[in-house]
Amino acid sequence: MSTTAQVRDTHFDNARLSEIGVEVLSLDALRSRVTADRLAEAERVDFLIVLLISEGACEHLIDFQPVRLAPGAVVVVRPGQVQQWRLHPGVHGLLLLVDTRLAQLAASALADPAFQLLQIDEWPAAFVLSAEDQRDGEALTRVLERQLDRDRVDDVSARLARELFLSLMVLLSRAARIAAPARTAQERLFQRLQRDLDASATTRPTVDAIARRLRVSPSTLSRVCLDRVGMSAKAFIDRRTALEAQRLLVHTGATTTAIGEAMGFSEPTNFLKFFKRVVGMTPDSFRRRYRPSA
Predict the structure, then answer these.
(1) Per-residue pLDDT tens digits for 228-257
(2) Which of 24, 35, 163, 193 has minimal Cβ neighbours within 10 Å of its Cβ?
(3) Rg of the chain's alpha carbons, rounded to an integer?
(4) What CATH number is given to the structural domain containing 248?
(5) Model confidence over 56-82: pLDDT tens digits?
């Protein structure tokens, strides 16, 4: 794991493990690598993070929303999301840093159909393991950590590490499925909407445009959004657009005007009014809250 010296733009960068695409850290090791002040800053990651908590309790911020950490909790931070650590000294656990492209290639190379069972896109942001799964998950992670810590990761060790990683992810996938049961047709449509917005948020898409892409009516989209999140499709799209602006405010040093232009607002005042209406504060106030040193 490496970070830039300015904004916490965090990358998977471990040359020794690049062919495997997975690194395991304890939270204690993370604290020894990164100062408390740096950990407290918001960061945007370009890899998958899976956090397994064994002791203690606190909060973790994902896209500016709090997630509770407690023993047995699994927290998932996806590439592109902004996270912020709020670790207490008594919180302990294990952290998997996963270069998704390399990890997927490695798993696929095993020709193992178990990889198809993972469905990481459908995992909730946080879920809780049973006591048995927590014990087995921690044991698998510790064995994986030992394989990755070898002085020389040869072909045999790399193959073993990939198998251990896949086994661990299948175990977690089972718990994630219990936390988030099979989706209904409405839930699948809502997930498709979320994926569309992930790809198009900076273009300020309209309800009609997304409905055409998803091949449903605008009224169907609105019904799904009202049922799933209690707001209209337009309000949900606005919230996702605002989230992208929030990420840019803490992730980059670009001016508010430049961010507004990048988000498709023709006038700075229009962006200011939009952001304040959706988020409840001005862009500058938001940036000061999550980037105090900016």
Answers:
(1) 899 999 999 999 999 999 999 988 889 999
(2) 35
(3) 20
(4) 1.10.10.60
(5) 999 999 998 999 999 999 999 988 888
